[in-house]
Design brief:
about 210 residues; two-stranded antiparallel sheet
Length: about 210
Amino acid sequence: MSGFGDMLKEWRGLRRMSQLDLALSAQVSARHLSFLETGRARASRDMALRLAQELQMPLAARNQLLHAAGFSPAFGGGPLNDADRAPLAQAVDWMLERHAPFPAIAIDHHWVLKAMNPPCRSPVDLCSIAARGQPDRCLMHKRGSARCPGKSGRGRSANFDAIAQRAGASWQGAGPAPGGAAIAAQGGRTLPPRFRGDASSDPNPLSV
């Protein structure tokens, strides 16, 4: 496992933040942040969590950062059981149902399709992504294909550029996280080169 400073620097690079950017965001001096990255200073537990929050690290990666700093994990690492997941799933289903008659999907932080409402099933089935669980593959495809007949994502989406930019940021940020290497590699193959950067802010919802 990488040291605390190496992990901090790697995630800062993924988020396209300079030391000064992160220092200002976390309300810490740039000099102290530099010392943390080089190992000349040791981060407290609160400081590690604050920096992880500002870098928008996934919870599993925050646990890794804490471990690298010499602290115990702060977040549960095991999968949710059915009882714990039930109220969350009900809330997602409630929102999807009330979004009708407009299409809506629910995806996880790796852009893997988890649920959709009935109005979304027809356009989604055209892309054959219901079973594949990867709406990004259809959206980013340059042309129609056997798996994505008809229009490409560019043709179906009114705000393709915003969605592509957000997907690129999500895939790049997945790299250091557990299980994220495959996601990042797949995204790099699918995404047009000009969108393989970071998004400065969340785009508008997908428009079809």
